[in-house]
């Protein structure tokens, strides 16, 4: 997890979504002193690390889903980290997420996570059942999938490549970019970097990534 500390510093990140983070004594360790971690305890599968100087508040968290509200350039946003294990039913957490999106209907929303779902809408694998659920959920909630099929795989191992880590948005129509990093990490998942400037700003001010350890 020393790599996490270095990544935050080297890329000047405002927040990070973590999925399946490395744990020591059931806790995430080596978080920079200028950051706060939001996660359910013990043994979280999803977490958000955010700079302490940002105005943020906890909205909801369980083992696999974390939702915070954070203020960027005087505008509140929902930031979500979600992990959907391949062997678990994803419906419950999608229902929880749906309720909070509806509750904060007018807020910009950024969802980052490992959904273990496949579709040629965002990758190069045929649609599976979980991919169908994600597509239906996005259609129902008017969400935009920022990943595109021409992006590099978000997961690479001896078993092959996959595109299972997603960035999904709502009420964000401009000044948003997503990049799959080719940096070497301690994970078989690649980092996903987001750059986003809320309307009314002159430069890209907020950076984030999704990292599965």
From TrEMBL:
SUPFAM superfamilies membership: DNase I-like
InterPro entries from the UniProt entry: Endo/exonu/phosph_ase_sf (IPR036691), Endo/exonuclease/phosphatase (IPR005135)
Domain of life: Eukaryota
Domain Endonuclease/exonuclease/phosphatase: start-end pairs: 78-191
GO MF term (any one): catalytic activity
UniProt name for this protein: Endonuclease/exonuclease/phosphatase domain-containing protein
Organism name: Caerostris darwini
Gene: AVEN_176507_1
């Amino acid at each position: 997890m020393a790599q996490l500390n270095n990544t935050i510093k080297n890329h000047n990140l405002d927040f990070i979504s973590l999925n399946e983070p490395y744990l020591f004594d059931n806790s995430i360790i080596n978080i920079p002193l200028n950051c706060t971690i939001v996660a359910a305890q013990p043994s979280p599968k999803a977490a958000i690390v955010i700079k302490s100087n940002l105005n943020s508040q906890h909205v909801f968290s369980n083992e696999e889903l974390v939702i915070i509200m954070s203020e960027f350039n005087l505008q509140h946003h929902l930031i979500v980290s979600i992990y959907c294990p391949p062997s678990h039913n994803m419906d419950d957490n999608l229902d929880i997420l749906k309720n909070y999106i509806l509750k904060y209907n007018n807020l910009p929303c950024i969802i980052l996570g490992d959904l273990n779902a496949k579709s040629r809408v965002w990758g190069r694998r045929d649609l599976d059942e979980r991919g169908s659920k994600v597509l239906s959920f996005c259609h129902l909630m008017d969400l935009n999938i920022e990943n595109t099929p021409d992006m590099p795989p978000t997961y690479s191992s001896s078993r092959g490549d996959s595109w299972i880590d997603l960035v999904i948005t709502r009420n964000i129509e401009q000044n948003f970019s997503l990049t799959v990093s080719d940096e070497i990490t301690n994970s078989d998942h690649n980092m996903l970097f987001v750059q986003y400037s809320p309307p009314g700003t002159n430069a890209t001010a907020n950076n984030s990534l999704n990292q599965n350890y």
